[in-house]
Amino acid sequence: MPFLTRREFTLILFALSAFLIAYNYESSFSSLSTAALFPGANNSFSATQLLSVQDAFRDDGRRNTKYTDDLESEILGDWEIETRKQHDLGPYGLTENNQFSDWSNGDIPQTKLVGHVPGYTILENVLLANGALYLVHNLASQIFPKTEMILSTGIDVPGSNLPPVSQELKFLTRSQALDIIGYGAHRMANTTIICFDHPHSITNETFLAFYRAYSTLSPPVQTKSGPLPPSQIILPNVPRDSLSETAYYPSYQLSRIAFPFLNHIFSEDFTDFGKTERPIILDQVLLTDRVAAESGTQTFDFSADVKAPFSEEDEVAIDGKKSKKTKKKEYEIREATLIEPIDKRLPFASAFALPAPHNWVSPLSAGALILPPPQSLTTHTKKSKKARKAVTYVSTQARSIREPQLREADHENLLRELRKAGEANGFDVYVVELGSERIEGAVGTWRNLVSAAVRSSVMLGVHGDTLTYAPLLQPGSGATVIEFFPDGKFVNDHEFITRSLDIGYVAWRNTKKYTRGNLPPISPITRADSRLLSIDVHAVVNFVKEQLRK
Fold first, then answer.
1. DSSP letter string over 238-291?
2. Surface-to-core class of residue 366, CB atoms within 10 Å of its CB (0-12 exposed, 13-18 middle, 19+ buried)
3. Best exposed site among 63, 105, 488, 499 by fewest CB in 10 Å?
4. Superkingdom of this entry's organism (predicted)?
């Protein structure tokens, strides 16, 4: 290793000397005391010693005014920090300390009846243990409806081929509940919907009906967003593996789009709940049962016996003030659909007897609008700043001949005339082909069906499941559903739902048009009826144009 040269040795010695002098600056130049300038700083510029002085530093690391000098002020400035207001909203969701409800003092929560119509019952503080539901109240017989109006356990519905549910529903006094349930339970927070329908009992209207019943829980304060979504939907009789084979599957897809954080619990998980030794308490639950609705609706008095939340008797007011003026000013109109005698044949009709905000379907429509728009049959040379109106024709021509469909000539003529009318009058024409995409410009997927419906004002198709998504139509005076029937036949499933949403409805049989007020009598379609339907294409298209002009 070579020795250091004299020059290198001198440089090292100089550097060490400079370091030692700088490091011991305060002790080497004690005569430069700064006590007068910095009282309380122990005669020191040292930031290390200032650490022991209270409030010597600001939040950003600079020294406070009485401990700084001109040089530091010149370099770092003397500006003040603008503190931002902190909004502590607290922990979100269900936290560890409130996942468990405890009533070790014996004060077990009583079950409260919030709302009820046959087959749709809203309750608070419901206990789930050993696979059974428990309603706790010392006066249960006076408070709650009959069991068969809530769940169809063990009942026999004449003329129905739907089986009752096997779920147990038990009523307990508070002392009995303490003996059976114990002194605590795991908590399932917020609102839960439990639909007890068997897979073959579920229809296209199942989800829409129980969501309509759930919407009655929306506070009657004016809002644009509609009711908040439920936390979870439980289907105790539907296995996850067979979900895609049930009529609930399209609704499941729609709910996932509209409510991304909504949780679905199927039969496998619900069975596990029954196997656990720890009971569960549900904050709020909507129990739905199609068979109970079907049987109970026939004898239920919808003009007097509907139990609804936020009713006049409850005297619910804003900010605790029971002022009628406040109600009229800040509360929106909550409407219930009038259940007419012919509507009682519909197992889902009772759900619409509960009052709900007029915009209760808006969260579903908003979710559907996220989907990209489908391809239109029409081409427009002129660009419009405003969104064009649209009509959706749901075709079943690609389905089996055993399914209802238009005569091929009428179908082709309807496509041609709708395209011509759309291009001449500046509206879009969406054709949704159920079963295939063999028609040019048609869309065959579920997503495009929903996307077309939510962008349209008019929807037309043969009777059956073609008009399931008519409730998503854009609201307005021109919103209309046109349903094609065979001669002599008519059912009011879609008419009832559209009536509840103030959507126009027309039943079309061959060349005859029936509007509300002169609808034909109920005559259900049977297998013996013709599956090929004929329509007056020119009359239908002219009516569509009239509606889109509104």
1. --GGGGGGSTTHHHHHHHHHH-TT-EEE-HHHHHHHHH-SS-EEEEEEEEE-HH
2. middle
3. 105
4. Eukaryota
Residue 484 lies in a domain: yes
Whether residues 288 and 414 share a domain: the answer is: no
> For residue 443, is pLDDT > 50?
no
The parent domain of residue 49 ranges over: 30-80
Q: Does some domain include residue 285?
A: yes
Ramachandran region, residue 339 (left: φ > 0; alpha: ψ -120 to 50; beta: rest): beta
Which pLDDT does position 71 carry in this prediction? 74
Residue 443 lies in a domain: yes
Question: pLDDT tens across 204-240, in order?
Answer: 899 999 999 999 998 766 555 556 789 999 999 999 9
284 and 423 belong to one structural domain: no
Rg of the chain's alpha carbons, rounded to an integer? 35
Average pLDDT over residues 509-520: 92
Whether 292 and 202 share a structural domain: yes
469 and 332 belong to one structural domain: no
Query: Which structure tokens are listed for 378?
Result: 């029409």
Q: State the total domains in the chain.
A: 3
**In 3-state terms, the chain is what percent helix, strand and coil (to 5)?**
35, 20, 45
Quick one: what percent of the chain has pLDDT higher than 70? 81
CB 127 within 8 A of CB 133: yes
Please state, in angstroms and rounded to a whole number, the distance separating the CA atoms of residues 44 and 38.
8
> How many CB atoms are closer than 10 A to CB 200?
13
